[in-house]
Amino acid sequence: MNEIRQMLNVYFIMGSQDCPNEKPEEVLRKAMAGGITCFQFREKHPRLHMHQAVELGKRLRAMCKNHSIPFIVNDRVDLALILEADGVHIGQEDLPVQEARKLIGHNRILGVSAKTPAEALAARRDGADYIGVGPMFVTMSKQDAGQAIGPGRITEIRKTVGAEFPIVGIGGIHPQNAKLVLEAGADGVAVISAISRSDSPKTAAQKLKMLIG
Ligand SMILES: Cc1ncc(COP(=O)(O)OP(=O)(O)O)c(N)n1
Ligand SMILES: Cc1ncsc1CCOP(=O)(O)O
Ligand SMILES: [Mg+2]
């Protein structure tokens, strides 16, 4: 459990839609140089052919392997298995948690999105290894994220699932507000734009890393 909590410290999420000015490989290279502790391949580009997603995923996966950074695939268990990912992240509208667990087995990490204490408890019961709670703040990276729920929700969920269960906050987090999320009880922060759209992805990752106690 502690290993997963550490892995969540600086959790970088990205797909080609998040990199308008630079190749995703280049952004990931800089983020890794800044000390990210986990990477999620979240490919949502409406015009990217699945074949291209597999090819991009293979390149990003190889980079993570070379730097010993856990590689998680968003939404798709099939893609996670193809890429020999370390895990999968699913939301409330994706596969049921128990079914995803059956497909990936017990040697891969399963992350689940939860907005409420009830969703968090259900995710833990059904086999999640960690939960992603958000959006903490307003986000431009996910159109259907819904209203910000704020760091206070992490405190509520932390009380419900206990001190040890791995929790990462997500949504609108950047170096200036990340402390609020960590102080509320999260083990780490998951970010897209704070790193992928920064002038310096490396510095942005370093700044987030410095906030971890
Ligand atoms: C770490 C983490 N937390 C939450 C999410 C959101 O997942 P989901 O609700 O399924 O939304 P999409 O990312 O699929 O748009 C996440 N991806 N990662
Ligand atoms: C995937 C996701 N889930 C909830 S908010 C969000 C987007 C996070 O992106 P950003 O860090 O740019 O706000
Ligand atoms: Mg999803």
TrEMBL record:
Keywords: Magnesium, Metal-binding, Thiamine biosynthesis, Transferase. SUPFAM superfamilies: Thiamin phosphate synthase (SSF51391). It comes from the Bacteria. Mg(2+) binds at residues 75, 94. Signal peptide: none annotated. Belongs to the thiamine-phosphate synthase family. This is Thiamine-phosphate synthase. The gene is thiE.
